[in-house]
Amino acid sequence: MTTLDVPEHNSQMQHGGPDPDDTPSSPDRNPRFADIANARLSRRTVLGGGLAAAATFLMGSQPATAAPGGNGRGRGRGRGRGNAPTLGFDGIPGDTTDMISVPPGYSATPFLAWGTPILAPFPEWAPDASNSAADQQRQMGMGHDGMHYFPLGRSSTNGLLVMNHEYTIDDQLFPDGTADWDAEKTAKSQAAHGVTVVEVREVEPGNWEVVRDSRFNRRITANTPMTVSGPAAGHDLLQTGYDPSGTALLGTLNNCSMGPTPWGTYLTAEENSNGYFRRAGDETAEQAELLDRYGYSEFGFGYLWATTDARFDTSQEPQEPNRFHWLTEIDPMDPDSTPTKRTALGRFKHESAAITTGTRGRVVVYSGDDERGDYIYKFVGNRPWRSYRGRGGSPLDDGVLHVAVFAEDGTGHWEPLTLDNPALAGQFADMGELLVKTRLAADLVGATRMDRPEWVSVDTRTKDVYVSLTNNRNRGIDYPVDAANPIVGNPNGHIIRWAEDRHDHAAASFTWDIFVIAGAHPYDPDGEQDVSDVGFGSPDGLWSDPDGRLWIQTDGSQPIDSNDQMLAADPSTGELRRFLVGVPQCEVTGVITTPDQRTMFVNIQHPGDSGGSDWPDKVGGLPRPATVIVTKDDGGVIGT
User: Fold this and answer.
1) What is the average pLDDT score of the chain?
2) CA-to-CA separations, 235 to 19, 50, 434, 572, in angstroms, rounded
3) Buried/exposed code over 330-356 (b: 16+ C-beta within 10 A; e: otherwise)
4) Which label site among 118, 287, 530, 637 has the fewest CB atoms less than 10 Å from its CB?
5) Which candidate, 395, 341, 304, places its Cα nearest to that of 220?
6) pLDDT average, residue stretch 161-190
7) What is the pTM of this model?
8) Quick one: residue 532, left, alpha or beta (phi over 0 = left, psi -120 to 50 = alpha)?
9) 305, 42 contact by CB (below 8 A)
10) What burial class does residue 308 get, using C-beta atoms within 10 Å of its C-beta: 0-12 exposed, 13-18 middle, 19+ buried?
């Protein structure tokens, strides 16, 4: 396995090694985003200062001054209540301590750490990690990631917190690590994955608790029964020895970000599911092509599940990999419901799911495929989502999946992944096969290769769409660098945004621009903001809150002396301020507020994943992923 120069902890390897998202599997023939972006930047007038400013722009973190189609700086885009600025807090410096840092006037309290009991008989957390697999099934999982708050009765003090558990660090999951691996260890590791639904309530300002007797509390893991819908349901590519119907799937894996639907359900994104499999070879040519394109390797990420669970050995279940990398819908309000994998949304390494509506109420789902050189996708429903729900159907089963193509002039279009697309003629027997092989279809239509698309967020006020592109450390090795492409290595990543034509999310074309290029030394070309102290790298989590603030979370080595962090940006002014700093080696990920915006939940993933932290317990023991509750000491709206 080749060792790459990658962020030191933006990784899901069990024992170190390359970041799986930074190993490309897309073909070299498609256009690269940096080639197009830099040509676009050389002609930017929105920056002010012409080419000299554009050249400086490429050297550090700089917010762009106006969104696509906007009216420029300070013209009301992204403003908060009334005419007040959206960023009303004092930015904080970077930090390397083992504590959570927030601005003056704010408090941060750990909550729902890995191992917190949520289901009877409520097994307590064992500080030496000696809890059994059965215990783990009733506790908060590991690897906290994307999450959403579903209010009960519109309440901002009582609701369901639904969160993903992306992956486990098995050296921490057991007292003796991965030694003497057996079926019990496989079961515990699998139980620490997936999704948690937990009812929480505020008992006093800033102090929340688990509602232990809640009927909603639920763990969904790598072994939870699932169903499947859409064009690939029952397809022979989903059929296995234990499920010849191809409709009774088991489990969800490597759940990264998510998206709430307009009808109140939760879409969880399955990302690097390939890392859990052992690839034994002896495949057909078709199987080999598909496994190669989705990044399956002999040892995966080092997980040992395949030694006791035949599902994760491709020599025993060659079709099992095809049953992952989907978006899975969960109804948190119905604890008896069966999660459903929605195949019409495509199969790839879903980092995220941002859900909104287009013309006539058609549902639109944006999602990034988090691997160097892969793509950005959009699903558009065929009819208004309410009509499907009214007839007992799903709006996510009938529509067209598209992939983004960016042009140098700041325009772009969505290429449909359909059997009647001339570029796909005769390539796939049916839509089920095309969707199982989504990446292969996107390759054929000339989609633009991106620098690891991560989270997608939609500003509900302006309808602008943002995508974080976390980094590409091989820029200049796999990718050409010239006068039009000056970002050597792109070690710190960037964020793009676009406006769909006519502000319709169902549109076939869009205009785009670069919102920020991350780095150590931000530069404001208009000289209106002093943002020199807000350097950051590896943007990952994104969320545009109801007032238009864009919250930016990081996962990777920072270009300044700091742990990973969360910043807030005002898209209308270009302001950028650091709001929260995590603990050593963690990822700051997952952010949502209650409806009144007075309580914020933020997740801290893999703190001290190779030592250097005992957060949040601070007793010298194991570090634990946990949620952080952030409140304003005066009880006000977060960020004001």
Assistant:
1) 87
2) 32, 54, 11, 48
3) bbbeeeeeebbbbbbbbbbbbbbbbbb
4) 530
5) 341
6) 98
7) 0.91
8) alpha
9) no
10) middle
Give the pLDDT confidence score for residue 46 in this predicted structure: 27
For residue 163, what is the enclosing H or E element? strand 158-165
d(CA 624, CA 639) in angstroms, rounded, equals 27
Rg (CA), the chain: 23
Give the residue-averaged pLDDT of 349-357: 97
Q: What is the rounded distance in angstroms from the CA atom of residue 12 to the CA atom of residue 338?
A: 28
Burial class (CB in 10 A: 0-12, 13-18, 19+), 525: buried
> What pLDDT digit, counting tens, does each position of 146-168 carry?
999 999 999 999 999 999 999 99
Length of the chain: 640
Q: What CA–CA distance (Å, rounded) separates 290 from 288?
A: 5
| E-state strands within 435-582 | 453-458, 465-469, 494-500, 509-517, 539-544, 550-554, 565-570, 575-581
Which range among 41-45, 171-175, 228-232, 526-530 shows the weakest confidence by mean pLDDT? 41-45
CB 402 within 8 A of CB 412: no
Residue type present at position 570: D
CB 111 within 8 A of CB 627: yes
Instruction: Please report the pLDDT score of residue 516 as a whole number.
Output: 85
SS3 (DSSP) at 627 = strand
How far is Cα 195 from Cα 552, in angstroms, rounded to an integer? Answer: 23
Q: Are 433 and 424 in contact (CB under 8 A)?
A: no
Q: Which residue has 């960016």 as its token pair?
A: 406
Query: How far is 343 from 230, CA to CA, in rounded Å?
Result: 5
pLDDT value of position 89? 97
